[in-house]
Amino acid sequence: MSEQQVKPTLLSGIQPSGQLALGNYVGAMRNWVNLQQDYRGIFIVVDMHSITVRQKPADLRNRCLSFAAQYLAAGIDPNENIIFIQSHVPQHAELSWVLNCYTYMGELNRMTQFKDKSKRHEDNVNAGLYTYPALMAADILLYQTDLVPVGADQKQHLELTRDLAARFNNTYSPTFKVPEPYIPASGARIMSLQEPEKKMSKSDSNENNFIALLDPPDVIQRKIKRAVTDSAREISADSLTKPGIGNLLTIYAVLNDLNESGIVDTFAGRQYSDLKAELSDSLVAFLEPFQTRYHEIMTEKGYLSGILDDGAEKARSIARKTLSKVHRKIGFVAPGRMK
User: Fold this and answer.
1) Residue 198 annotated among the catalytic residues of the structure
2) Cα separation of 30 and 11, whole Å?
3) Which listed residue (117, 225, 242, 276) is catalytic?
4) Model pTM score
5) C-alpha distances in Å from residue 269, one per residue of 272, 273, 280, 288
6) Is the pLDDT at 96 greater than 90, yes or no?
7) What CATH code is assigned to 3-183+301-330?
8) Contact 50, 16 (CB under 8 A)
9) 202 is catalytic
10) Which of 19, 81, 201, 298 could share a disulfide with 41, CB 3.0–4.6 Å?
11) Domain extents for the chain?
12) How far apart are CA 88 and CA 316, in angstroms?
């Protein structure tokens, strides 16, 4: 048995909507890179989830490829992990339907994300948005996943996934591994630049609220210069507790590997404008190698396509085994059985 086969499986994915932002890197992609030596990573561009909101087809296709390239540019090793686009593995949809039939209406009614998105998209409250958690459960359970990194907005969905796995296992016999949440020991939370009480979001309608990983230097400098702070001018020991300036200090600390005391020592008594200038320079320097590698990947279409095709084939091989067990246990007739 190879080293990769005995590694526990960690699964995560990002919807190809909006633009991948600094918050995505700090909250997810950086952890993926750090964990890939100890886990078999399965990293998905979850395009099937994204169509619960209307998408422009050409834009969606372009974002899928762009997001996959950004996974690679961030440092995900395709030789150690499986990277693919969700819709390339039809078993996700097949298992999702089965799990829909084991998910109770009351459970879906309690999902806060459905309630929130329904308010934001009142003209398109569709069944897919309602049953989204069953598809997410399928994404996870297909691969006998050990660990799933979760943020606050997905915690409910993982709890439902665990409940569905246990329900199916108890109804039939052990079929799915019950996944555990992966919560980093510590991690910075990157907030919106204009509304620092809110988490930075790649899908924010106001692009001044986030730093996109592909933003050019002049855009980065403009966004940081306009970032909301407060009426004070100098940085002090309590600046970290203030939403706006505290967020900028946190970003600088993350980019320069500083802790709270280190960041305060660096800027104590200095002007907010000094921090903004140095933060802009740090962001440009930090993103330059990422963007260079991204543009190299995007010009090598055969390279990116090969990785996604290989990843999808590996994913289908694992998913078929799980789905075959599920079909047999619920009573579906296997293809060719009557011959």
Assistant:
1) no
2) 14
3) 117
4) 0.91
5) 9, 12, 19, 30
6) yes
7) 3.40.50.620
8) yes
9) yes
10) 81
11) 3-183+301-330, 207-295
12) 9
Q: Which of 198, 202, 225, 276 is catalytic?
A: 202
Q: How confident is the model at residue 2 (pLDDT cuts 50, 70, 90)?
A: very low
Q: Do domains 3-183+301-330 and 207-295 have the same CATH topology?
A: no
248 has pLDDT over 80: yes
Structural class in CATH, domain 207-295: mainly alpha
Q: Amino acid letter at 176?
A: F
**Active site (annotated) includes residue 177:** no
